[in-house]
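Hi P.,

Sorry for the delay on this. The queue was packed all week, but I finally got your sequence through. Input first:
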Amino acid sequence: MTVQNLMKETPAAPSSSGLLMVARRSVLESGESASQPRGRFPVRLDFATASAALAIAAAMLLNPARAAAQACCGGTPQGSLAVLTRLPGEAGTVAISLDWELRQLDKAERTSGPALAPLLDQRLTMQLYSVAAEVALTSWAAAAVVMPLAVNRQSVTLPDATNLRGTSAGIGDATLLGKLRVLAPGGGTNLIPTVVVVGGVRAPTGPSTLESQQLGIFSPSIQPGTGAWAGVFGVSAVELLSSPLSARPWNLYGSVLGSYSAANSRGYRLGPSLSYGLGVGVLLWHRLALQAGVDGVVVAADHRSGDAVDDTGSHQIWVGPTATWTIVPQLRAYAALRLPIWRSLNGTQLVGAYSVVAGALVSFSALGGG
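Then the structure:
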């Protein structure tokens, strides 16, 4: 007996900002510049507010090393795009990061769509490891490659107390990304934000038809790969602030990132997604930086052979702190906690109470001298 379609999981990631901080250079260390939820939290945007929102786009987690924009590609872990969060520095600078994210989904919720049907007791533990390498081609352009590894464990308890288990694990879909700085402060003023545009492609390098003996073929939402090509595009920016009450550097940041996936060979297409993030960061000490922000992701319903798939599509928002510790100038470690504050789910989907992210970044000059 298989139960892979008894209920859809919704692993839309709270770490959407990871990629979204692409424009971030070590702003807080060096002092150098570098759609609203349905029916709730109405926001009025005038020109100044909109400009500030874009100006605060780029370092969604204040560390110059955050790397897990998991919601960038359909809201699924296999679509995770780990991208270095530093603005291109000197030509030849190389940065390598390793990220780990843990999420546990064990609660079924529904806010819209078909009426809630009787459900089985399900639990999904998702771990995502992302390795990213970036090279600064010039002081204003960089290229990055990202390779994720997903380990997703699913457990289903039937009404007769029978427990079925399975693990979907493997290399995910590799992503090649380009970053281009299009705006930067100049003339000794920080009134102009640093703005970077990003774009790239995700290749179907990971398996998308894994199955277990007990559960059958896993849902597309927890397969390591998607089986389809996808495009990724977005903009990030950061604006330095000064405070008359403190000499510590502050910054506002924000970002918007979209993704569109083609259909795979079986006619299944992940829904387009839009991730966004806003927040503020401060350098507390020359080795410790803290930030707090809001992350959100809107994911449209998936489609199979042209028809919308039930229990897919959502809008979710998280808040949480991030701490970055500079061990030595070339090595940084960071950790983040994400807590959900609002969500709108289409149909019945699994959700979790939190997300934990940890990682490290090392940078060096491939040309020597640093």
